[in-house]
Design brief:
By secondary structure, this protein is of the alpha/beta class. 33% of the residues lie in helices and 21% in strands.
Length: 487
């Protein structure tokens, strides 16, 4: 659960790299466009990823009795590699209040390389495909395959979130199911508040009276995993996750951990085996702007949905990406500290419209199923004309060639994707041939999004849906102003 990665934000990054040494690190952010815009004014956007996996970092199963009996979380085959928690944490550089924005796990969105899927599936789909490719290459060490295939899952999740919200992602952190438990156990009893009594013994194991109460590690996991018996199901579970973060922050303030190096070192030693952070994260630098988190200056939001549908026998949340982009822009203070993400090298929208006469022939040379179709669908949505979609022989390098009259379009795409284009007299006039190779396929998928409008979207009247809309409102807090009461 990425909720507990906030402990890393509030604890590990408030002292020195000596305390956080030993954490797993990841280069997955490198899949995003390195030349794209980043947060400004010292702000940071951090994607917190909660992985609902019953596997250890080396791919081995977590102890069956522990997972099934104590955590009420099924066996090692349950949950797969879904990201059941996705939270964008925005920390302003000037010490103002931070914002934690939850993305509901069942939002039906475009996942690069896989088409429309639930956002939680982006990780597992890419992870499984990469594991298959590694096996085909003769890599038999399961721990090596686990680490490398999880990197593919992280890249997929990062690209999906960035494409959906059009914001920079400066850093990320990931924690798995056992990490949640270990952190909760290390912190000790955590205080929560329920509006009504609940009994979900059959599923999550959550069985609690109404009111304020303290939970141990197993109870805390049940608290945040419950969705059965709640009026808004997964959306109410998102509120539980936010309430738990508030409980963690409150615990850190009251326990004296912050500023006590020995206590902080002990906590990090317990949880570092379960947490992954991006390799570019600087704990010391972040310390200068993290005090607003542990000081309680943190607001919670849940991005809205438009309604519910059943697609391919799965219940999904229908979302409007344009609305989500406007909502998060409003939440992050009208882009004062965050610049919108755009396609790398993209010109202003008025100058970047494709030539309507040019036709694209797109071929997949990577062996990744559906990649050409995904790129074609995205380019079509941008206004390009796609004539042919197919596969080619496997290739490493992406090649773009063009016939007479199509040079402008070809060079525009080449610039956007970090490659080159060349003329080919054998191609038909006004045709561009694109063969996607494995060397920059991730960049093409990440970059292939409609250019962000040069005119900012109109701010929404509410950052969160009003009463009666499908999405839940923001948390209120209880009478003492520290622990939010939730359903």
């Amino acid at each position: 659960m990425s909720l507990l990665v906030l402990v890393g934000v509030g604890v590990g990054w408030t002292i020195s790299t000596s305390v956080t040494s030993g954490l797993y690190t990841s280069d997955a952010l490198g899949a995003l466009d390195v030349d794209g815009p980043a947060s400004i004014g010292g702000a940071s956007n951090i994607l917190l990823i909660g992985l609902d996996s019953r596997k250890a970092m080396d791919g081995s199963d977590l102890p069956a009795q522990f997972v099934t009996d104590q955590l009420h979380a099924g066996d090692s085959d349950v949950g797969g590699y879904n990201t059941n928690t996705l939270i964008v944490l925005h920390v302003p550089g000037n010490g103002d209040r931070a914002s934690a924005v939850s993305i509901p796990r069942d939002d039906y969105v475009s996942v690069p390389g896989y088409g429309m899927r639930k956002i939680k599936e982006a990780y597992g789909l890419a992870k499984a495909d990469e594991d298959t490719r590694l096996t085909a290459r003769g890599i038999t060490d399961p721990a090596v395959r686990e680490q490398q295939s999880r990197e593919a899952g992280r890249r997929s999740t990062l690209a999906t979130v960035q494409n959906l919200l059009r914001i920079p992602i400066d850093h990320f952190a990931e924690v798995n199911l056992i990490g949640f438990y270990d952190i909760a156990a290390a912190l000790g009893p955590l205080e929560v508040c329920l509006n009504s009594a609940v009994d979900d013994s059959e599923y999550s194991g959550a069985s609690f009276p109404a009111g304020r109460q303290f939970l141990d590690a197993a109870q805390a996991l049940a608290f945040v995993r419950q969705r059965h018996g709640l009026e808004n199901g997964d959306l109410d579970r998102t509120r539980r996750q936010q309430a738990f973060i508030a409980a963690v922050v409150n615990n850190l303030k009251s326990s004296g951990i912050i500023g006590n190096i020995s206590k902080m070192q002990a906590l990090v030693n317990v949880v570092k085996k379960d947490i992954v952070i991006d390799a570019g994260m600087d704990p010391v630098k972040f310390a200068s702007q993290a005090s607003n988190l542990t000081g309680g200056k943190l607001d919670f939001y849940t991005l809205p949905i438009e309604g519910y549908e059943t697609i391919d026998e799965q219940a999904v949340n229908i979302v409007d990406p344009s609305r989500l982009q406007a909502e998060i822009k409003t939440i992050f203070a009208g882009s004062a500290s965050t610049t919108p993400i755009s396609s790398p090298g993209a010109r202003p929208e008025s100058d970047s419209a494709p030539t309507s006469a040019d036709a694209l022939d797109i071929f997949n040379g990577t062996g990744r199923d559906g990649l050409a179709a995904t790129v074609a669908a995205t380019l079509t949505s941008q206004g390009y004309t796609v004539a042919t979609v197919g596969n080619s022989t496997t290739t490493t390098s992406t090649t773009i060639t063009y016939g007479t009259g199509a040079g402008e379009t070809a060079h525009k795409l080449a610039h956007q994707w970090g490659t080159t284009a060349s003329s080919d007299a054998t191609l038909a006039d006004n045709h561009v041939s694109i063969v996607i190779g494995s060397d920059n396929a991730d960049r093409i998928l990440t970059a292939s999004v409609p250019a962000y409008s040069s005119q900012a979207p109109s701010p929404a009247t509410n950052a969160i849906p009003t009463t009666g809309a499908p999405g839940p409102p923001t948390h209120g807090t209880d009478s003492e102003g520290s622990v939010p009461c939730v359903d």
